[in-house]
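Appendix B. Chain record.
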Amino acid sequence: MTDATLLEVREALAAQIAGRLANLDSSYGELQVLPRRLFSPTPPTIDIYPADPVQEQTGMGYESRDTFLTVRARVTMADDDAGQDLLWEFADTTTAASLLAAFAADPTLGGTADNSTVEEQTGFRIYEDTPGSGGYLGCEWRLRVVR
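Structure tokens predicted for this chain:
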């Protein structure tokens, strides 16, 4: 069991994703990767926030819990084709932009976790976090983090 806090885990996860995708094709725009939920994104954007449920009891005692995090990728719908293509690249296990490859690069998230695994990935959805802000196209990955 690591002594890392959840804040340290999310920071390490964001750094791992940003490092893996640092050379993303600039035709998509500059990628934002944040260790918190972003309500006013400048896509393409990846944000990280607690999943629902956020924790699950795995053993005896209150500290024996796995944590679930949502990693969400969003793109603008202004260039529908390019945005969808980028989401497909994030979902594809064979591309340089693969988020699954970014997660698998270090399941310990820089030593802040004992292990992390992707439990599921959604299909494309429209997100409008703040009413009237306009929608973004995106998808999510749900990670189980064991500390």
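Further analysis of this model is presented in Appendix C.
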